[in-house]
Amino acid sequence: MGNKRLVAVAVVCVSVMSTLGSPVLAEKSKNEQTKLESEKKTLEEEARKQDQEVQQLEQKLDDHYKQMTEQASLLAGTEYKLELQEKKVKNLLRSMYTENYLYPLTQLFDANNLNDFIERYDFTMFFLNEQQRAVEELKETKQVAQEKKKKLADLGEKQDQVLKETQQKQDELEKKIAQLGKDIRTLKETEDQTELNEQDRTLIAPHDKVAKGSGQYTWPVGGGGTITDTFGTRGGSHKGLDIAAPPKTPILAADSGVVSMVSSGGGYGNCIIISHGGGIQTRYAHISSGTILVKPGQSVSRGQQIAGVGNTGNVRGARGGYHLHFEVMINGVATNPSRYISR
Ligand SMILES: [Zn+2]
């Protein structure tokens, strides 16, 4: 059983340590912490959504830039075609005049007959109209392309703006989240400190009124029991000595003094604290319900039974986790009980 049980009891005692202090204060602080945590979660969710939005916007922007590039090359092509077409028309017109191909008005009237005139006139007009139409068409295409290009440029600008604003918002959100995280950490630290202070006050206050103990300490479990965990284990968080013993085994006052606290609930379960004067106190935790024999303010003598071993509070481990968690505190600070007691 040895190691397994030892570890289990150590786990228990770590959880006991973390639930110390004023329950009301801890509850309040915990609520605030939960609130902050949920606020942080909401903000993080918002940030994730914004991230997605930014990605979508960037994709859209990319598409638009592509379209703009296409449009620009289309426009360049149109302009080139237009230039060619205009040159062609000019050349044609020039050659028509020089080669007498285009029939000037005078020559039209020189036509041999009306049919000839009409034929020449129709041909000329048709040719000119066709050319004109091609030029107009090209001009139109050019205008449409230009308008489209401008529209795309405007859109791109607008999207750039939105992107910028979204990123700003995102930055602010991230800052907020970081600040919240910091607040939560500070709150946790404050809570720990407050718990410590609360503990100090409740434990140290009665000392002045307490008659001094003998300074000789006796083993607090009748019949001895088995040590399952020592002081300072679990990364230093275990503040006492765990002595396993069968249910209701007598728990004895380690020295004479005055009972300064009898409490129940929380990680310690049923718990007694005895003040021995000179800033020294002993704590007895996980007491079996209905076995407490003393009241606050009552004087006790060394070796007097004050309660029975139990498994109340946070205990786990072999055989129901029955054990005494025994602490020695000097001015409210837990110290190694092995310096004061031995079997
Ligand atoms: Zn313990």
Terminal CA distance reads 21 Å
Mean pLDDT across the residues is: 77
Count the helices. How many? 4
Radius of gyration: 47 Å
Number of DSSP strand runs: 10
Provide the CATH architecture of the largest domain: Orthogonal Bundle
Give the H and E element order. Answer: HHHHEEEEEEEEEE
Helix content: 55-70%
Major sheet description: 8 strands, antiparallel
Organism: Baia soyae
Domain M23ase beta-sheet core: 237-337
Pfam families: Peptidase_M23
InterPro entries: Cell_wall_metabolism_enzyme, Dup_hybrid_motif, M23ase_b-sheet_dom
Question: What's a concise summary of this model?
Answer:
Helices cover 55% and strands 15% of the residues. The chain has 343 residues and is of the alpha+beta class. The protein has two domains: 152 residues, Glucose Permease (Domain IIA), CATH 2.70.70.10; 180 residues, Orthogonal Bundle (Helix Hairpins), CATH 1.10.287.
